[in-house]
């Protein structure tokens, strides 16, 4: 590696910084091979620590031990710092990049955890909101100071079968966000890991909870905004229109990522779900948006095992498509009735089905979930 620091002023700055950490450090030490410089091994550790604190990140051992001189290490870290600043500037403009190593915490059922994936995509959406409006998510309020929540109203994603993602894969994601009016925000997230892909759209609407009751959540009428850098859409997105029409029972079918799901009142099977507050209730006391499709799958899994005799359904069928329409939330002490409305076997060892979630206390429709799963 032949990267060196050529500008005297820049060099003097680093020399002065390192001299404070290691008295006696001089200009010649910058470009003298470490094996010949006479710098004590303990001083090398101190120099490394000083550089990491200066640049704001740790450097991997494999990178550090490749450097022949202190100058090379500084050049490497300065270049990485500049790249991160450039990425940050893109993030502030409404684009966010994120790379995630798939390790055990990101896995479930011998593949990528769908629950983790939903939460990770949700976090990208919320971070884009936060950056675009220059507020922490906990600071979103209406004009009267009441807390507002960026509640998901629809989440749609197509992904390679989740069991194809394996430990130590790297999932590279890019998120972009735009807005419709002052309260509705639509993000597009794309991801890849080798030949595996991810494409998602997520939409939130700012809402307020009345009297701490999750049954009384309504779209906000005003919002306290200092700035908003997020681009405004000129036309109403079809993604939003479909949600509005489905909520008003104006659709007979839903078209989603090339699939058609028939809307009907049939009930092939039904189950009752008891909420686990330690896992399914989020940090502000609402049913987590990521829990809805997992709860919906319970009914389908039971139907597949009992009625169709597919005992290993969970282990052999993995999600490739979801379209989740959210309409309501519930309190943590309630139960949810899940209905399996339609189920169809497709070519290529795939199953397509539609499910509905209801609050048992008042029979309120909470969500419709449209799913395609692929057999391993």
Structure in a nutshell:
The protein has 376 residues and is an alpha+beta fold.
Q: Spans of 5+ residues with little confidence (pLDDT < 50)?
A: 1-6
Number of helices: 11
CATH homolog superfamily of the largest domain:
Hotdog Thioesterase
The level of helicity is: 25-40%
CATH architecture of the largest domain: Roll
Describe the structure.
With 376 residues, the chain is an alpha+beta fold. It has two domains: 8-90, ACP-like (Non-ribosomal Peptide Synthetase Peptidyl Carrier Protein, Chain A); 93-375, Roll (Thiol Ester Dehydrase, Chain A). 31% of the residues lie in helices and 31% in strands. The chain contains eleven helices and 15 strands. It has helices spanning 8-21, 28-31, 34-37, 41-55, 61-64, 70-92, 114-133, 238-247, 277-280, 291-306, 313-316, and strands at 95-101, 107-108, 111-112, 149-159, 170-180, 184-193, 196-209, 217-219, 253-256, 259-262, 269-274, 317-326, 335-346, 350-359, 365-375. The strands form three sheets. Strands 1, 4, 5, 6, 7, 8, 11, 12, 13, 14 and 15 form an eleven-stranded antiparallel beta sheet that branches. Strands 2-3 form a two-stranded antiparallel ribbon. The chain has a two-stranded antiparallel sheet with strand order 9-10. The chain is elongated, with a radius of gyration of 26 Å. The two termini are 46 Å apart. The relative contact order is 0.10. The model is unreliable at 1-6 (pLDDT under 50).
